[in-house]
């Protein structure tokens, strides 16, 4: 186990970040280490171990005394998630923060017609802030027979958190689950009867809306046991996830326009550092003080000042409970299938 030192977990805050080898997850790790250089036991949970090693080395270059371990986990694979959770249970007695950040948006397509229509409508600001109605994706099916976006962004994380319940639930000490959701999460893209989004063309939006609902259900279930869940939106950030949408020369050309757009909508955070603002902000908050119905947005002003703002989500308790029940059924189904 790279960098693992038994006994260390007793004194330090234990933080695990999924999708930590690039983009917003990696930026968050850097920010956490700058805030608490010595007092953190940081675990980077990554699918690609080569990229994880590179990320660990980069973090150690800027924070040489940091304690950073690696964990192999593919959130889209049931067996990988179960194995990773087993490993975490062996390594730690308690988890203080679990950042559920890994995510994909495969084969994104910009609907150019809808985009230009939006440009000349009153929806222009919200179109740039949320990408609503102008992006579609083509999903795949995993070897477990699940829709890949659902499995990666939502279900793998749900299973992981459930498997880590003994480390997250303590009456004398609180723990936080923090989901990297999105302002692209829309009720209209989500259907309880098709929670994996097998039929639609917006699996990304659907998975993020599901994470908003799930976070609420987790709070209902687990707050009494000291576990709190919240969701954030990092804003629009230039990362591997968004680079795929347009050819790279177009992004370069558009950059000055994006800086200008930021004057009108502070949601154009653009850099992973800025995008990690809300994730970082929640690290410093008392979880009891957070609103389970709010999404915490990373925002960057025209002058480059970062701040976090909560906004009420379009979710309700009844729907969150129904989703939770469906996820439990799927959980027992996949565990049976994997003889677990
Ligand atoms: N960029 C943006 O504008 C926005 C991003 N977000 C969300 O932020 C989160 C981070 O994305 P971002 O930093 O932008 O993009 P990146 O592509 O840079 O980061 C995504 C991370 O998720 C990991 N990942 C992807 N699939 C899996 C998997 N099956 N198992 C484990 N890890 C996986 C990637 O690892 P690997 O190296 O193995 O691919 C990578 O570390 C995502 O949840 C995304 O939806 C939300 C709103 C806006
Ligand atoms: C062709 C021109 C001039 C501009 C194209 C801009 C869009 C590609 C861009 C505008 C708003 C962006 C956006 C996202 C993707 C890229 C845009 C649609 C997201 C949907 C990316 C993922 C998220 O989770 C959202 C928060 C982003 C919202 C804004």
Automatic annotation (TrEMBL):
<dbReference type="Pfam" id="PF00106">
    <property type="entry name" value="adh_short"/>
</dbReference>
<dbReference type="InterPro" id="IPR002347">
    <property type="entry name" value="SDR_fam"/>
</dbReference>
<dbReference type="InterPro" id="IPR052834">
    <property type="entry name" value="3KSR/17beta-HSD"/>
</dbReference>
<keyword id="KW-0752">Steroid biosynthesis</keyword>
<dbReference type="GO" id="GO:0000253">
    <property type="term" value="F:3-beta-hydroxysteroid 3-dehydrogenase (NADP+) activity"/>
</dbReference>
<keyword id="KW-0472">Membrane</keyword>
<comment type="pathway">
    <text>Steroid biosynthesis; zymosterol biosynthesis; zymosterol from lanosterol: step 5/6.</text>
</comment>
<dbReference type="GO" id="GO:0047024">
    <property type="term" value="F:5-alpha-androstane-3-beta,17-beta-diol dehydrogenase (NADP+) activity"/>
</dbReference>
<keyword id="KW-0444">Lipid biosynthesis</keyword>
<keyword id="KW-0443">Lipid metabolism</keyword>
<dbReference type="GO" id="GO:0006703">
    <property type="term" value="P:estrogen biosynthetic process"/>
</dbReference>
<comment type="pathway">
    <text>Steroid biosynthesis; estrogen biosynthesis.</text>
</comment>
<dbReference type="GO" id="GO:0004303">
    <property type="term" value="F:estradiol 17-beta-dehydrogenase [NAD(P)+] activity"/>
</dbReference>
<keyword id="KW-0560">Oxidoreductase</keyword>
<comment type="similarity">
    <text>Belongs to the short-chain dehydrogenases/reductases (SDR) family. ERG27 subfamily.</text>
</comment>
<dbReference type="InterPro" id="IPR036291">
    <property type="entry name" value="NAD(P)-bd_dom_sf"/>
</dbReference>
<keyword id="KW-1133">Transmembrane helix</keyword>
<keyword id="KW-0812">Transmembrane</keyword>
<keyword id="KW-0256">Endoplasmic reticulum</keyword>
<keyword id="KW-0520">NAD</keyword>
<protein>
    <recommendedName>
        <fullName>3-keto-steroid reductase/17-beta-hydroxysteroid dehydrogenase 7</fullName>
        <ecNumber>1.1.1.210</ecNumber>
        <ecNumber>1.1.1.270</ecNumber>
        <ecNumber>1.1.1.62</ecNumber>
    </recommendedName>
</protein>
<keyword id="KW-0521">NADP</keyword>
<comment type="subunit">
    <text>Binds to the short form of prolactin receptor.</text>
</comment>
<keyword id="KW-0325">Glycoprotein</keyword>
<dbReference type="GO" id="GO:0005789">
    <property type="term" value="C:endoplasmic reticulum membrane"/>
</dbReference>
<dbReference type="GO" id="GO:0006695">
    <property type="term" value="P:cholesterol biosynthetic process"/>
</dbReference>
